[in-house]
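Students often ask why inverse folding is considered easier than folding. One informal answer: many sequences map to the same fold, so there is more than one right answer. In these notes we will look at a single instance of the problem. The structure comes first.
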């Protein structure tokens, strides 16, 4: 009977450890995703500002 209790405890501990690792990976993914979104938005504003600084081409409409 004692062996079953130990197996259950170790199983639950392993499951909890896996859940914590999953939550940590998910959090890291979400932070990285937000950073990528900020980088893209920054690049978009830089691109827009760069296009405004270019001289007008005679054949552009």
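Output (designed amino acids):
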């Amino acid at each position: 009977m004692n062996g079953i209790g130990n197996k259950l405890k170790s199983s639950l501990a392993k499951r909890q450890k896996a859940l914590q690792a999953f939550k940590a990976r998910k959090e890291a993914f979400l932070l990285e995703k937000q950073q990528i979104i900020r980088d893209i938005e920054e690049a978009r504003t830089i691109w827009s500002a760069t296009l405004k600084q270019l001289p007008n081409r005679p054949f552009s409409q």
